[in-house]
Amino acid sequence: MSTRTLQRKLADVDLAYSDLLDTVRFERSSSLLRDTDTKIIDVSFASGYSDPAHFSRAFRRISGVSPRQFREQSRLRKK
């Protein structure tokens, strides 16, 4: 299926491709930050970002905190 076809099908259910992509990337990155000691730069690449700065901005926009703060808060909750 082409990207454009997927975009049309998502639009049919009132969902934007970019929103779906953001959600999938956020779920992947938050899982890696919460459950592993992977470096944040490597988390950004593993989550589909080619620029770690863009990853940090996107993560903060969605979660309200930086990736580092998210990791620290997640670790405090585990204790």
Descriptors:
HTH_AraC, DNA-binding, mainly alpha, Arc Repressor Mutant, subunit A, 79 residues, DNA-binding transcription factor activity, transcription cis-regulatory region binding, plasmid
Question: Could you characterize the architecture of this molecule?
Answer:
This protein has 79 residues and is mostly helical. The protein has one domain: Arc Repressor Mutant, subunit A. The protein has 5 helices and no strands. Helix 2 (17-35) runs antiparallel to helix 3 (40-46). The mean pLDDT is 94.
Provide a count of the helices: 5
Radius of gyration: 14 Å
So what's the overall shape? elongated
CATH level 3 topology: Arc Repressor Mutant, subunit A
Total domains: 1
> Low-confidence spans: pLDDT under 50, at least 5 residues?
none
The averaged pLDDT comes out at 94
Our measurement of the CA-to-CA distance between the termini, rounded to an integer number of angstroms, reads 45 Å
Protein name: Helix-turn-helix domain protein
Pfam families: HTH_18
InterPro entries: Homeodomain-like_sf, HTH_AraC, Tscrpt_reg_AraC-type_HTH
Keywords: DNA-binding, Plasmid, Transcription, Transcription regulation
